[in-house]
Amino acid sequence: MTAPTSAIDVNQPTLQPAAPTGRRLSWPVLLLIIAGGLALTSIVRLITGADGITNVSQMSTALQLAVPIGLAGLGGLWAERAGVVNIGLEGMMILGTWFGAWAGFQWGPWTGVLVGILGGAIGGLLHAFVTVTFNVNHIVSGVAINILALGATRYLAPLAFEGHTGGSAKQSPAVDSLGHFTVPGLSDALRDLNNQGWFFVSDIAGLLGGLVTNVSWLTLIAVALIPATWWILWRTAFGLRLRSCGENPVAAESLGVNVYKYKYIAVVVSGGLAGLGGVFLSIVANPFYLEGQVSGRGFIGLAAMIFGNWMPGGLALGAGLFGYTDSLNLRGGSANVHALLLLGALLLVIGAIWLVVRRKYVPAVITAVVAALVFAWYASTDEVPNQVVSATPYVITLIVLALSAQRLRMPKADGLPYRKGQGK
Question: Of 6, 9, 77, 336, which shows the fewest CB atoms inside 10 Å?
């Protein structure tokens, strides 16, 4: 039977997105860079005595804080790969927190997970309806959804939660736990190895120990969504069609792709993933909905997506970095951030040397001066103010985006208006 003319061959070169500018890092090189960063962190730990920067508890907390950021970033990746900018991730996460807790305390946590995803998906559907069907500016629509979600949950919370045990106008009753697991034997062995304080080996043990200690089942689902997204978007015909809508929707339409349909699917999935990130906050991170608990994580998720160059693997690294810096607020924040000043100074020195090798002398001098200032700050103080600790995740977000901006390449049609048949 002959295939319909509207079908697209996954090998069709017309729909292949242009290669990003610059060279991609191979996996061996990337792993080598990660190992080098971990070795440098180990040196800083030995010099400063700040054992908390790589212990098991710190890494476990970092993983928990990275999950909602990663889910928000994954939602942004789905939408933007189809050409729709989703600034409304923050609002969709807020909807996920409220709907997840509302259903969770009444019908159980897993029902709360499903309803929270649905709440975020409704926000995504609204965003798709406004931007795809009516061609409203994507940024304006996203900001409006953020405001609408915040107002709606503030209105609904007193109606739904007041009168129930533990509920109030700003907080839901407690939701039962989804459950946690620890890999028996392996977790204790890694914790013991981490406590030895050895160079590099103990730091790797701390990192791995955080991945197998007190892990929520929802965390496993979230981590599995990273390779699942990569496989769907880069290894299936469906993913090729969806990405073609973000690269060249006119060419995609000319080959029979229903661009509107794929944009709608991508943005609804985007909202559902952001809603799942909100569910994680209101059921796993805290066993209840609390007004304001999203606290900008939707925007940090967008930053993780941009840092990862609109790729799932890079997004996961970015979410891990931001989750780690956020965890400094909870565990020995001042001492750990003070130790990381030395790490920052060393990284800046390495950056200055690299710039000299590339014969970029003016940026190298500026980088060296900044490194000297950071080291002077570290050497002249014993701790940093609490305000600096609280601001660390946001400062790191800005620094990472500034340093990675030159190597990024967003989908070509991302955020651009599109009308059916406009290429005719």
Answer: 6
Q: Which pLDDT score, from 0 to 100, does residue 387 have? A: 79
Question: What are the tokens at 133?
Answer: 């069907």
Angle, helices 237-247 vs 217-235, to 10°: value is: 80
Classify burial at 133, counting beta carbons within 10 Å of its beta carbon; exposed 0-12, middle 13-18, buried 19 or more.
exposed
Q: Which two tokens stand for residue 407?
A: 């190597």
Question: To 10 degrees, the CA torsion angle through 41, 46, 48, 52?
Answer: 70
Q: State both tokens at 409.
A: 């390449």
Average of per-residue pLDDT across 132-150: 96
Q: How many helices (H) and strands (E) does the chain have?
A: 16, 2
The Cα-based distances of 69 to 127, 139, 163, 320 in angstroms read 20, 20, 32, 9
Token duo for residue 106: 């009444």
What are the distances in angstroms from CA 233 to CA 95, 163, 198, 228, 236?
26, 46, 41, 9, 6
**Alpha-carbon distance 209 to 53, whole Å?**
13
Compute the distance between CA of residue 300 and CA of residue 322 in angstroms, rounded to an integer: 8
Task: Scan for tokens 């242009």, then name that residue.
Answer: 18
CB 336 within 8 A of CB 306: no
Residue 1 is predicted with a pLDDT of 41
Q: How far apart are CA 44 and CA 49, in angstroms?
A: 8
Q: How far apart are CA 96 and CA 106, in angstroms?
A: 16
Classified as helix, coil or strand, 180 is strand
Determine if residue 228 is left, alpha or beta; phi over 0 gives left, psi from -120 to 50 gives alpha, anything else beta: alpha
The three-class DSSP label of residue 290 is strand
